[in-house]
Amino acid sequence: MYSCINHIAIKGISACVPRQIKKTMDYDWITEDERKLFIKSTGVEERRVASLNAITSDYCEKATNHLLSKLNWEKESIDVLIFVSQSMDYYLPATSAILQHKLGFKKEIIAFDINLGCSGYNYGLYVIANLLASGNLKRGILLTGDTSTLSTNYKDKSTYPLFGDAGSATALEFDTDAKPIYFNLFTDGSGYKSIIVEDGGARNQFSEKSFIEHKISEGIERCSKNLVLDGIEVFNFALKEVASSIIQLFNDSKLNINDIDYFVFHQANKLINESVRKKCRIAPEKTPYSIHKFGNTSSASIPLTMIYQLKDQLEKKSLNLLLSGFGVGYSWGNCIIQTNKIVCTDILEIE
Amino acid sequence: MDILEFSAKLESEFEDLEKGSVTPATEFRNLPGWSSMHALIIIAFIDLNFDVILNSTELKEAKTVNDLYYLATKKNV
Description:
The structure holds 2 protein chains of 2 kinds. Chain A is 29% helix and 28% strand. Chain A is α/β, with parallel strands linked by helices. The radius of gyration of chain A is 19 Å and the shape is globular. The model of chain A has no long low-confidence stretch (mean pLDDT 97). Chain B is mostly helical. Chain B has one domain: Non-ribosomal Peptide Synthetase Peptidyl Carrier Protein, Chain A. Chain A binds chain B through residues 33-34, 36-38, 40-41, 158, 217-219, 230-233, 235-236, 239-240, 271, 274-275, 278-279, and chain B through 15, 33, 35-41, 43-44, 47-48, 53-56, 59.
């Protein structure tokens, strides 16, 4: 699906992570050589891990308050609030409703959740941009992030050392001076089992069996309430679909690779991201990374990488960015967006 | 890329291997330090150099470096 949306501008971004740092070299479930290989292949040297005190919506709440304050936006001016996550506060109600209340936003607001992971930032941007594009609604806040470490098992070397926790807030506004945003978005549910938490939804409700650990293979033990990640299948999906979808967006938008200042990829793992980068013939200096410091932070990884690596430039000049998110679902999508001296907070921390 | 160059390049993808330790007959899962992460490294190597994506079944059935070369090139050596 290709689409071009006019008159929408990103005005600011913010991100918040837990203060607790876990270093890959301290992960004693695997040998020291395996830790080194893991760091070399995935890029993850350390990541932020939630304490018991705070989860995704708390990171997003803090990021939003800080961002609104830096933007000097009145809370009453927010017309749309979207929370994109796969670690909602409760089975129900929607976390966006809880956040509307906690943030002190007005009642005349459209607020809802979107259940997506690694592709979530692009999907969220698309949905909020469409809602604002008519001009009837002026301002929106897009919140993205996950607390993936709550569902990983320490004894699963394929997931535990990879994921970090984070939340982000992006402020968008109807702006007739804004350049068009070009999107393409895709879904292929045939790969739904490749990244999955099997128990805890309506289909497989929690039971005693959900907590029984099984040995899957060497270094991988988990139970059915834990996150499953089939590395080879996910890698194949990314190689098949992501680079070609980026090239397709260039073809559809009549833009080309030289028009882009930076390609901000979802921080899946370094091996995947570097493969996509090389397939698209993108220069390494145009692809910023945050995975070495924060791990794979799901739908927060794109805004987190923007702040971590591009804060100064985002604040001081106009940038053409290609944002690419891909993963669980499978779900993936890209957008080309021009930012123009936006507000960036520092990366905030929470206990 | 012939099979010898393929073997040498694959060898350099693995860390800390003695020069010449990867030959066409090498059973790659028996290489010292083999881990499941190397499967991803092999997929990335073959995709980058041959534009061929190995699926998990193909990879599971492959035993030797020669098998990988065949999957990458569809050439018997």
